[in-house]
């Protein structure tokens, strides 16, 4: 894995219009992805994961902050058109069916969407067959209609489609959430295998912490558009430092934190959106103190380079052990640890 960041997201803020108001969906989010690395974005529904992916793809306007891809500022839709045309940043979404034309055979649908890139029709077709083989699809799939494929096959088509332009970064937005558990592991392993061969970088979006941990080197934990914690995947998933991450871990199918220890309060009658000055998690935090309601927590850097935004976190007292694999916490195997670093 190279140290060169392929993508640097700094202070990203995205607001959506709701009537006359502009409502922030993502606030001051920063992270970077190195070549061959996977950074996972995790958080409950509405935490801004997809919005971050869409901002990277240039599909939503950016209110503040910057997105630098391969050393070029590509913030916002206008700048992004060029990079997207070059196919350097691609996406695999949860529902591949929605982006395949049901009335066309798969090959025609892909050629329509991806273009031929200056190749002859025959060369494009041969490339598709080759890519389909690499993602474990029989070559006959190129002439099949999308409705005849299984969910797993459609997702493999989506992966092949993303690879058509030899991208450097793929945004994987919940790519296995709609698949059967048995097929999920196959598709996750396929993504990892392709990454190894091509030194691809992934931004992997998910709400299942086990899946995100399996795929990621580094995890960014989001809550209502704010980063509450980030760090090496195994540390975040096994020795979470932030109360919200502990709640996420406790809620996972293989908790390493006791659910009783960290039961969060139900969402308070106080609208969390009203917490504009304090910690966004305060209305649900079981260990909140007075200052949490009035002051935004500082972002502290942990000994391993991770970040924690919590008034109660003290990096000096951080004795987080080197993470060990969690019993049964991964669908297939545990990813390799990443070296401590500064982000
Ligand atoms: N097009 C839009 N217009 C207005 N608000 C939007 C739009 N898309 C998303 N939002 C809001 O932005 C916030 C973040 O949404 P986003 O889809 O990024 O979250 P998410 O983490 O991907 O959620 P999920 O896990 O459900 O996919 C939510 O409050 C959502 O309601
Ligand atoms: S800052 Fe306060 S409310 Fe927020 S997570 Fe930490 S202890 Fe809880
Ligand atoms: Mg989403």
From TrEMBL:
GO terms for biological process: peptide transport; transmembrane transport. It comes from Streptomyces jeddahensis. Transmembrane segments: none annotated. The keyword Zinc does not apply. Keywords: ATP-binding, Nucleotide-binding, Transport. Belongs to the ABC transporter superfamily. The keyword Nucleotide-binding applies. Residues 7-249 form the ABC transporter domain. Residues 318-343 are annotated as: Disordered. CDD domains: ABC_NikE_OppD_transporters. This is Oligopeptide transport ATP-binding protein OppF. Pfam families: ABC_tran (PF00005), oligo_HPY (PF08352). Coiled coil: none annotated. One of its GO terms (molecular function) is ATP binding. The gene is oppF_1. NCBIfam families: oligo_HPY.
């Amino acid at each position: 894995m190279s140290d060169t960041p392929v993508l640097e997201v700094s202070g990203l803020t995205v607001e959506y219009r709701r009537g006359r108001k502009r409502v922030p969906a993502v606030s001051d989010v920063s992270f970077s992805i190195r070549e061959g690395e996977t950074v996972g974005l995790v958080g409950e529904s509405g935490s801004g994961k997809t919005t971050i992916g869409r901002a990277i793809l240039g599909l939503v306007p950016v209110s503040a902050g910057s997105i630098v891809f391969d050393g070029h500022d590509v913030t916002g839709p206008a700048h992004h058109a060029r990079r997207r045309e070059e196919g350097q940043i691609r996406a695999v979404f949860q529902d591949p069916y929605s982006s395949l034309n049901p009335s066309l055979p798969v090959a025609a649908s892909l050629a329509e969407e991806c273009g031929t890139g200056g190749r002859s029709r025959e060369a494009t077709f041969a490339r598709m067959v080759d890519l389909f083989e690499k993602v474990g699809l029989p070559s006959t799939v190129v002439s099949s209609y999308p409705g005849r494929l299984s969910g797993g096959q459609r997702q493999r088509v989506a992966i092949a489609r993303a690879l058509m332009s030899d991208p450097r970064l793929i945004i994987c937005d919940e790519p296995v959430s709609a698949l059967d558990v048995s097929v999920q592991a196959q598709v996750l392993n396929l993504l990892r295998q392709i990454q190894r061969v091509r030194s691809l970088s992934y931004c992997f979006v998910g709400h299942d912490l086990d899946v995100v941990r399996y795929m990621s080197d580094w995890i960014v934990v989001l809550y209502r558009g704010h980063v509450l914690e980030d760090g090496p995947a195994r540390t975040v998933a096994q020795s979470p430092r932030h109360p919200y991450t502990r709640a996420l871990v406790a809620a996972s199918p293989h908790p390493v934190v006791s659910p009783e220890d960290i039961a969060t309060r139900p969402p308070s009658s106080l609208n969390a959106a009203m917490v504009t000055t304090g910690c966004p998690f305060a209305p649900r935090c079981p260990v909140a103190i007075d200052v949490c309601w009035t002051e935004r927590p500082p972002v502290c850097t942990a000994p391993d380079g991770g970040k924690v935004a919590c008034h109660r976190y003290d990096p000096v007292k951080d004795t987080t052990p080197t993470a060990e694999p969690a019993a049964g916490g991964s669908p297939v195997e545990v990813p390799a640890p990443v070296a401590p670093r500064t982000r």
